[in-house]
UniProtKB/TrEMBL annotation:
This is SUEL-type lectin domain-containing protein. PROSITE patterns: SUEL_LECTIN. One of its GO terms (molecular function) is carbohydrate binding. Keywords: Lectin, Repeat. Pfam families: SUEL_Lectin (PF02140). InterPro entries: Lectin_gal-bd_dom, Lectin_gal-bd_sf. Residues 16-84 form the SUEL-type lectin domain.
């Protein structure tokens, strides 16, 4: 990734953020695939171990938080693969936001 992306996350109706899962990498060929060469989408077993812990440390228990997403923060789990960040915590601003 040549830069990074700041992702603002907000709490659900419960009032605070509680991260259940998070991914930085690539788990399928469809998400964030527009305009990408197929060679950048082939590795669908790309994920950085510990992503959920990093996101939890930054966000759990808060009303909102901003996470800097990119190889500079998370590291590069799979060189040459077009990555994205995704969560299943009820606040999905992170989904479909793409980075290299």
């Amino acid at each position: 990734m040549r830069g990074s992306l700041n992702l603002p996350w907000r709490a659900t109706d419960a009032g605070v953020i509680s991260v259940q899962a998070a991914l930085y990498g690539r788990a399928d060929k469809e998400t964030c695939s527009e305009g990408r060469h197929p060679s950048q989408l082939g590795n669908t077993e790309c994920s950085l171990d510990g992503t959920v812990d990093l996101v939890r440390q930054s966000c759990n228990g808060k009303n909102s938080c901003t996470i800097r997403v990119g190889n500079t923060m998370f590291g590069d789990p799979c060189r040459g693969t077009y990555k994205y960040c995704a969560d299943t915590a009820g606040f999905k601003q992170c989904l479909q936001i793409c980075s290299r």
